[in-house]
Design goal:
Chain lengths: 275, 983, 169
Amino acid sequence: MKPAAFDYVRCETLDEACEVIAQTGDDARILAGGQSLVAMMNMRLATPAVLVDVMPAPDARKVAAENGTLKIFAAVRQASLLDDPDLTWRNPLLARMLPWVGHPQTRARGTICGSVAHADPSAEIPLALAALDGKVILRRGRKRRSVKATDFFLGMMLTDKADDEMIEAVTFADVQQGTGTGFAEFGRRKGDFAIVACAALVSPMRVRFAVGGVNDTPFVRDWDNLSPQDDAEALNALAWSLDARGDLHATARYRRDLVRHLGAQALKEARSCAV
Amino acid sequence: MPKDGLHQTMLRVEDAPLLTGRGQFFDDLPTPHGTVHAAILRSPHAHAKITDISTDAARRLAGVHAVLTGEDYASVASPLMVGVKLPIECWPIAQNKVRYVGEPVAVVLADDRYIAEDAVDLIDVSYDTLAPVIDPLKALADDAPVLHDEMGSNLGADRYFSYGDPDGAFAEADHVVEISVRYPRNSCTPIETYGVLTRWDPHTRSYDVLSNFQGPFSIHPVIARALNVPGNRLRLRTPEDSGGSFGIKQGVFPYIALLSACARLTDRPVKWVEDRLEHLTASVSATNRAITLRAAVTAKGRVTALDYDQVEDVGAYLRAPEPATLYRMHGNLCGAYDIANLRVRNRIVMTNKTPTGLNRGFGGPQIYFALERLMQRIAVELGLDPVNVARDNLISSGAFPYRTASGATYDSGDYQNAFDTALKDGRYDALCQKRDAARAQGRLYGIGLTVAVEPSVSNMGYLSTALTPAERAKAGQKNGAQSCATIAIDPVGSITVQIDSVPQGQGHKTVAASIVAERFGLEPGAITVVAAMDTGKDAWSIAAGNYSSRFAAASAGAVRIAAGRLRERIAAIAASQLDARPEDIEFGNGKVFIASNPEAALAFARVASTGHWAPGTLPEGIAAPMRETAIWTAPELTAPTEEDGINSSLCHAFIFDFCGVEIDPVTHEARVDHYVTMHDCGTILHEGMVEGQIRGAFAQAVGAALYEEYAYDDDGAFLAGTLADYPVPTVHEIPDLTILHTCTPSPLTPLGAKGVGEGNCMSTPVCIANAVADALAPASGNVDVTLPLSPARIASYLPDEPAPPEGIAQPRPGPGKGLSGQGEAHVGAAPQEIWDLLMDADQLAAIIPGAHGVKRLSPTHFLADVTLGVGPVKGRYRVQVGLSDLDAPNNATLTGKAGGALGTGEGSGRVTLTPDGSGGTVIGYSYDAAVGGKVASVGGRLLDGAAKIVIGQFFAALGRRAGDAPQPDGIIARMCGWIGGRR
Amino acid sequence: MRRLTATERHPVRFTLNGKPAEGTAHPRMLLSDFLRGVQGATGTHVGCEHGVCGACTVRIDGAMARSCLTFAVQIEGAEIDTVEALAPAPARLSVLQDAFRKHHALQCGFCTPGILMSLDTLLATESQADAERIRDVLSGHLCRCTGYQPIVAAALDAAQTLREETDNA
C-alpha cells in the first residue's frame, strides 16, 4: 500500500495552485488535508501525476463572514472551523454536524473544501453544504464561477468541477435567527461514514430536509408547510422516493428505515429550537 | 504477601519499552545489507485458469531485481504438507490456476516496497475465468464447480462418529429439537500484520528466517519440507515483540516458504511486510461453518443426546493445521452438559475463499453458536426457563474428573456453584425486571445465556481424529503437548529465562519472572525473560507457540519445573556449605538460609554461581546449577482411541455468561445493556492479565457478534478489504463488562492454572445472539439469527416496513447477482438506426466510455483498451466486448469482460429497442455485472454508482451517435465529460 | 511555488521531538515510512495505511494526525512529535505512560504509541477532559487486545494526576 510516484508542487498562494491545476488538468489533484485522497493513493485507486499542495498558501486559510454567508477557503481545516467560537451562533447546524466528521485525528488535517471535492454522498460536509444553500466557488486560472451545491454534486465522487478547475472556497448560508436546526446520523461505528444522515431546518416559512448516504448525492427537499403530525407520512414518502440501495453495510430497506426514524429525530430537534 | 507466592499485581516488565517506542517488533529490526523488498501480485478472480503471465515490463523497471512466479517457486520448493490425506497440492503461490481472490500469483523483489508495488502494477496476467463456488453447502452439490480436479468434488473428508447410544436416546426422546445455523468468517485481525525476513546460504544449503510467526511449531517441519531442507537447515526466529496475533500469525507460514524460495532464487535476503489490504483479503480467518444440530430431549428439558451435522468451509486449500478448527472441540461437543450420547458427521468442503487457519476461540465459537442457540430453542419450544434448562443439564458438581461422551476428561470444576454464584446478588433478576418493564413499553429487550467449557493446552494428537482408526494406525500415533522452558544462571548468579510460548502481548515474561522469582526468593525485576524464539538454539517442540491458551497451564508450568530443579540443586549446595539438610534450606530476599536459623545465610548469587566458579566444590551427585531445561507434557494427553474417543485438551475452564440487550427503536442497533461473565479458570497467576484476556476476548467477540464479517459476494469477490469495510469496533462500540470468578484448580497442571484467553470469543457471540433472539421474539417469534447482527440484519427480522404511499412504486429488486440495474433511455432515432450502430463494431467502439485502441476480433467480438474513472479513481482496463442473441432490430445481448490493476469486471446487458411512435426509440436495458479484485474489496460503495454512470454514459453516447441531443437530460451528459477524464 | 520531481529525493528539514532534523525523501514517501525508515524513529507503528487504525498517529505542529496520510515532503518546517519524546528522561515514564502501565492499558503494545500521542495531546490541551471526551479522541484508534476500558481508566487517572500536579505547582 504505497502510492504511485508523483511530482509535488508546494504553493504559496491560491493563484499558484490555480495555475498549476489549469495547466496540468486531468493529471493533477489538489492536496489539502489528504485524509481521503492519500488513503486512495496508498491503495493506488488514485494515481495523480502531480499533487498541488495548497496548504502552505496563507490566502487559502481564510474564513470570511460576508453577505450572510460563511466563506471558507481551500486550506481551512475541519478542526479549525470547529474551534471557531462564533460558529455555534452563526451556523448551529454546521457546528452540530462537524463533530460527526471522522475523528479528531482526521479533522486536525482534513479540510472543508477537500471533503466537498471528494463528494462522498455519505459525508457530512457535502450534506451540510447542500442543506445550507451552499455554493462552491470554482476557479480556472483567474476565472471564477459559483455553483450551487445541489448542482455541484453529480454522483458518487463526481462533481461539476472540471479537471482544470479547483475549489477556491465554499460558502454556507448563515442560519437565520428563529430557524431551528436538527441533525441525526447513524454509522456502524463512531466516526464512520454515515449509512444515513439527516439534517433539518425549520423556519416559519418552510421545512428543509436533507438526506445523505442514500442517493449518490446529498438530497434536499423543501416543504412549504409540514406540520409535525404529517412528518411520518412525508418521511415515508420521501424514503420510498429515494434511490436506496443495499451494500455490505446496510440493505435498501434499512436505509429507508433510517430515513424515517432519523428524519423524525432531526425534524423534532429542529422544531424544538425553532421560534 | 503475594497470592500463591506469585506477584498478582506486579507491573508488567514488558510495558516500559512498549510505552516509550522501544519495542522490538518485526519491522523495527535491522535488515542485512543487500536486502530486497517483496510485493505480491494477487489474483483478482475467485476461480480462473492462468493462461499467461507477462513480466517483461515489470522486470525492466529500474530498481527491480526479480519477478518470480509459481513456476519459479516449484523449481526450488514443494507444496505445503497437509495433515489429512488428500490428492491435492497446496502451493503458497498459484500454479496455473487461482482458487481465491488474493491468492499470490507473482512476487516482485525490488530496492524498496514502493518500487516493488510499481512493478506489480506492470505485470500482465491473462486469466480464463471459471465459475466459482462460495457457499459450503452449494459446493457439495453434484453440479458445483470443482476447485481441485484431482479430487473430483469439493468434499475433502466425510467422517461419522457415534458415542454412547444416540439412536436409542432419539428413539426414546419426548421431544426432538433441531436448529440449523451458519457461523460466518471473521478474524481477530491483529494491528501488526505479517512480516518475513529470510536468507539462504547456498554453502550450507540452509535458510535463516525471522518472522512474527506465532506457532504452533508443528508448522516448522511443514515449512522445512516445502523448502526441501531438513529441519536443522531452517532456522526460524521470532522477534522479541509481536503486535498481536490471536491465532492469525500462524497463517504467515505459507509466506515464509514462498519468500524463502525467492531468497534462494535471487541469492538475496528478502523482506516482506504484509499490508492491510493483503491481510484482510488473504491472511487467515475463522472457518465459516454450516451446522445442523438436533437434540433428544425429555419432557422436563433434559438433553439425552446430540446429533451434529457439520460442514466446515476451509476455503480453497486445506492448509495445515486444518482441519484442526473442526476437531479442536471434538472432546467437548456437549459443552458443559452431561450428555452421554452423541452422533457427529463432519464434512470438510473447499470453496473459492481464502484458506482458513487459527483464530482466537478456534472451533469454539462455531460449536457454541449451534449448541447454545439450540439450548435456548429447547427452552422456548418446551416453554421452560432457559436458566433451568441450562442448570438441569450441567455436569454435576461431584462428577469431576468427568469423562465426556467423545472422550475428553474435564479435569476439574464446580459448574453449578459457578452458575449459581453468577446468578445471585440480584444480577440476573434485575435484568428480568428490566426486560419486563421494557416489554411493557413495547421496547425490544432480551436476555441471553451461555454456558461453555473453554478447553486449553491442545493435545497434538487431536487432529488425527480426522483420520479413520485404520489411517491413524498407518500414520503412527500422535499425542501429547510438550512445553519447554530453560533457565540459565550466569557467573554473577543472575538469571535468564527462555520461554517457548512466543507471547503476542499477554505478558508471559512478567508471569515467568514472577514464578522464577518466587522459587529463588528474588525480586521479579531481577529476572530477565527472553521471549524471542530461535529454533537453532532454544528448546522447543512441535507444541511450542502461542495457541490453545497454553501458557498459564503448560509453558508457565515448565518454567516452574525448571526453577524447582535448579532450586533443589542450589539448596543442596547451600546445605553443604551451611552444614544443613537441603530440605531445611529456604530462599528469600536474595539469600539462601536455614529456615530455623535465618542468620545462617548465604548470598543467593554466590551459591547459584558455584557451577561457574568452583565446580569442584559441588556436593557429590549435584550437577552444576548453570542451565536447566524442563520439558513437560501431561500424560493425560493420549492418542485417539480405537473408538475415536479423544482427550482433545488438557484443561477445561468453565464460563457462564448472561446479558441483557436492547434493540434501539430508531437504529435497530443491538445494544448490550449489561453483560456478566463468570469464569473458573483454575488458579489465577496474575489478576490484571486474566482480566486483560477476558476483556480483550470479549471485545473481539462483540465485533464478531455485531460488526465483523469477511464477506464475499456470490461471485467470490471479497468485500471487506479495508478497515472501513471490516468494522473492527472502537471504544464506543464495546460495552462494559462485569467479570466474576470462582476457582477449582486444575489437578493436572503444575500451577493449577487453566487457559483463559479464548473463552469469551467462544461464549460471547452466541450469548449476544441469544439475547437478540429473545428481544425479537415478541415482535417476530422464533428467529434464526445469523452473525454479525448488524442493524440492517436485525431490521430484516422485524415486521415489514411501512408501504410506499400511493403513486410511488416499490422498487423492483434486481436479478440479485452482484451489481445490477435497469433503465430506459429515449433516443430520437428509429430502432433500425440504433440497431445498426450497435452492430457496427467500429461505431460501438466509439460509444464505449473511455475506449482507445480498439482491436476487432470478429464481427461480433472486439478488444478495447479503456480508461475508466470515477472521481479520483481512475484505471486502465482491457475490455472484451461481445454481441449475441441478436434479434434485429428489437433486442440484443452485450457482454463485457474487463481486467486491470484495479480489478476485474464481467457483465452482460440485454438491450431492447421499442419504437416510441413518433420516429424515436425507447431503449430499455437491464444489466447484471460482477466486479472483483481491489475495487470490489476496497471500493464497494463506489461501484453501484459507477456502473450506473458508465451505462448512462454509454446510452448518452449512443444517442449522440444516432444524431440526438444528449439523453436523457443534461446531467448524464455533464457526467460523461468526467468519466474517462476528458471534458 | 516549488516543484519537487517524482524521481528524485528532496531534502526535508523539520523539528523532530524538539530537535532539528533533516532527511531526504521522494515526494511519495509517507511520513510514517520517513520517520521509521529514514529517521530511525520506529516507535511510530504502521497498521493500516488508510487512516483507520490510528497506530501511526503522531503530533504535527501540536495536533494529533495520521502519519500514514501525510507525505514526508509536507512536513517541511513543521514540528513533529512522536512517542519517543513522551518520557521525561530515558529511564522514566510520563504520567500518562505510567498510568497505562498501572491500568494494563496495553498488551501487545503495537497500537499504543498512536494512542499515547492522541491522549497526550488531549491532556496537554484539555486538562479537564472527562471520560466522554477521552472516548471521543480514543475512537480514532483501534486496539485489538485490551477491550479499551483499561485505556479509558488510564487516561482518566493520568488526567487527575496531571491536574493535581498543576494544582500543587
